[in-house]
């Protein structure tokens, strides 16, 4: 049988061991008060132990507004609220085995935003009463930023920062099906920088890239509904997907885009149309149905764009009927 002195010695050893762990760790008692705040936790958060020991203010080390940390959820027995508090988390099927989650934290004292992976595990006595909850923290910021960068490369155009062609194709199919179910119109703009080959030949490819980035920025500023998508379609051509939009709505956006690019007044001395960079835009809108596919909407916008170029460029031409493809 262990003596009380042995038990006390073991407790002191455990506390000292936890204090010197390289993993940032803090411990809450059954009243959610901090009883251990180890040195690694001090380094991570910039909060010294004496400021939090005995208090329930540990949240101040991670957030600028009061909210529960993962260990609090274990003490309170409410793991179901993790959805509201954490970006990623394990299913709270059995709180007795602890919780795991990941989240961005603002870290007010060190004044930098960190992505932390968090584990919180309960400690019970022999009768099953909760004694404490141990929360450990791992800084995963570099890994998260690398993951976000890879994800961004997969969906964004490297030059302009707009969505890439793959994102456009996926969005087009998804919104076509959604608008078909809802019975609402869907619109597309195809946008071409007029005489862009001549621009490159005159000013060089680096200036050409700068021009494309400027046009993309103007496009992005004018396509601001959350459901819409502006993408680089290929080369000097851009595209805009507008769910739940009729032709009048599409033309309104097209006019805004043209005005924004004209307002930049980018010189284009070699242009056969104007002395500055201009756009030709083809607009189309359709009510998705079983009679047509999403590709028909793109083809209609492409036909309208072709007519805009044939009619002298620097203009918006529209169609809302797939049958008009035959005219192109």
TrEMBL record:
<dbReference type="GO" id="GO:0043709">
    <property type="term" value="P:cell adhesion involved in single-species biofilm formation"/>
</dbReference>
<dbReference type="GO" id="GO:0052621">
    <property type="term" value="F:diguanylate cyclase activity"/>
</dbReference>
<dbReference type="GO" id="GO:0005886">
    <property type="term" value="C:plasma membrane"/>
</dbReference>
<feature type="domain" description="GGDEF">
    <location>
        <begin position="184"/>
        <end position="321"/>
    </location>
</feature>
<dbReference type="InterPro" id="IPR013767">
    <property type="entry name" value="PAS_fold"/>
</dbReference>
<feature type="domain" description="PAC">
    <location>
        <begin position="100"/>
        <end position="152"/>
    </location>
</feature>
<dbReference type="Pfam" id="PF00990">
    <property type="entry name" value="GGDEF"/>
</dbReference>
<dbReference type="Pfam" id="PF00989">
    <property type="entry name" value="PAS"/>
</dbReference>
<dbReference type="InterPro" id="IPR035965">
    <property type="entry name" value="PAS-like_dom_sf"/>
</dbReference>
<dbReference type="InterPro" id="IPR000160">
    <property type="entry name" value="GGDEF_dom"/>
</dbReference>
<protein>
    <recommendedName>
        <fullName>diguanylate cyclase</fullName>
        <ecNumber>2.7.7.65</ecNumber>
    </recommendedName>
</protein>
<dbReference type="InterPro" id="IPR000014">
    <property type="entry name" value="PAS"/>
</dbReference>
<dbReference type="InterPro" id="IPR043128">
    <property type="entry name" value="Rev_trsase/Diguanyl_cyclase"/>
</dbReference>
<dbReference type="GO" id="GO:0006355">
    <property type="term" value="P:regulation of DNA-templated transcription"/>
</dbReference>
<dbReference type="InterPro" id="IPR029787">
    <property type="entry name" value="Nucleotide_cyclase"/>
</dbReference>
<dbReference type="InterPro" id="IPR050469">
    <property type="entry name" value="Diguanylate_Cyclase"/>
</dbReference>
<feature type="domain" description="PAS">
    <location>
        <begin position="16"/>
        <end position="54"/>
    </location>
</feature>
<dbReference type="GO" id="GO:1902201">
    <property type="term" value="P:negative regulation of bacterial-type flagellum-dependent cell motility"/>
</dbReference>
<dbReference type="InterPro" id="IPR000700">
    <property type="entry name" value="PAS-assoc_C"/>
</dbReference>
